[in-house]
Design a protein that fits this description.
By secondary structure, the protein is mainly alpha-helical. The chain folds into 2 domains: 81 residues, no CATH class; 279 residues, Na+/H+ antiporter like fold. 75% of the residues lie in helices and 1% in strands. The chain has a two-stranded antiparallel sheet with strand order 1-2. Strand 1 and strand 2 form a beta hairpin. It is globular and about 60 Å long.
């Protein structure tokens, strides 16, 4: 008889919690179902850790557990002792960006000179495909102006560090991925406000100059600080290299939880539609990014990189911008949804490509 492991027991527990949550929900006991929903995601994440091909999805499942907690118990994620937890969003984003800087060096930008074609195509695809998709989806969504503007804001943001992880798993060009993430991040203070001014100006008032300086404070200064830190202590901070990815994941989770709690009422009323629009935005980003790369005769590995860079946005930055605008519960809502959605689709796409070597295509 096969011995049950903690992972298999967790899977059984997750199934039981899922059935209990469904039964209680249909019975109208939604509040009582809450703990079972949360326990289901937590146990499922633990169960996934026991299977090599499912491990990569554990973090995404934990995000769902965190989001479920903030939906059922938003009061715990709005304010503590008079301090509004939304005030943590920008510091957390700065820590994440500092971590990105510590993982970079000036050598990463050498690819701009070595492979300018891939870099130029990737940057142009990033700042045309997703912004225009966002504007199109916002215009047909019928959503309130500020929430619709949030969709555009996600599209106008640069790619995030998650794209580098997904590119590595997808057997794409990791060097190109890091270069594109770095370049689009450094261009964001100038490009994102301009795009928002022209694409989202009809929905909300945009102060492009203020947004530019806000982005510089949120990402450019922390990234440069990380670069300097890496330069001075190169090879002496292995512990930091191991710690920062964990800190970044925790930071992203906390940002999503705070946004979800702040925008809970809006999310419950328009959640399904916003999730659908976010999914379309994300998937079409992959498809059109890949198509653009192939149109310009890029090889398979580079085409995968561009697809992932275009499809995966820096939702944390979009959240930070929404916070500086004082609209975290409305403009920031799309970013809060985009984060979990892109982690799921990105993991699935990376797993699919991981099994298909680009050299054989």
């Amino acid at each position: 008889m096969k011995k049950l492991t903690i992972h298999s027991l967790s899977g059984i527990g997750a199934l039981c919690c899922c059935l209990a949550a469904i039964f209680l929900s249909f019975a109208g006991n939604h509040a009582v179902a809450g703990p079972f929903v949360i326990a289901f995601f937590l146990l499922l994440a633990l169960a996934f850790q026991g299977y090599e091909h499912l491990k990569g999805y554990s973090f995404t499942i934990l995000i769902f557990a965190a989001v479920s907690t903030s939906l059922y118990y938003p009061q715990y994620f709005l304010e503590w002792g008079g301090f509004k937890l939304s005030g943590l969003i920008i510091p957390l984003l700065q820590v994440i960006m500092f971590g990105m800087g510590t993982a970079m060096s000036l050598n990463d930008f050498a690819a701009v000179v070595k492979t300018p074609k891939g870099v130029v195509i990737g940057i142009l695809a990033q700042f045309t495909i997703m912004p225009l998709l966002g504007m199109t989806l916002a215009s047909v969504s019928g959503l309130p102006p500020e929430i619709a503007a949030g969709i555009i804001l996600v599209g106008c943001s640069p790619s995030g560090v998650a794209s580098n992880v997904m590119s590595y798993l997808a057997k794409a060009n990791l060097a190109l991925s890091i270069t594109l993430t770095s370049c689009t991040t450094l261009l964001a203070p100038f490009v994102t406000p301009m795009l928002m001014k022209y694409l989202a100006g009809a929905y909300i008032e945009i102060d492009a100059t203020k947004m530019m300086f806000d982005i510089i404070k949120m990402i450019i200064l922390p990234v440069l600080g990380g670069l300097v830190f890496n330069k001075i202590l190169s090879g002496k901070t292995a512990w930091l290299d191991k710690l920062m990815p964990q800190v970044s994941m925790l930071g992203i989770a906390l940002i999503i939880v705070v946004i979800t709690a702040a925008g809970r009422d809006s999310l419950l009323s328009i959640g399904p539609l916003l999730i659908l629009l976010t999914l379309i935005h994300n998937i079409f980003g992959y498809v059109l990014g890949y198509g653009a790369a192939k149109l310009f005769k890029m090889n398979e590995s580079d085409a995968r990189t561009v697809a992932i860079e275009v499809g995966l946005q820096n939702a944390g930055l979009a959240s930070g911008i929404a916070k500086t605008m004082g609209k975290i519960a409305t403009i920031g809502l799309a970013a809060g949804v985009f984060g979990p959605v892109m982690n799921i689709t990105g993991s699935m796409l990376a797993s699919y490509w991981h099994k298909r070597s680009p050299d054989k295509l």
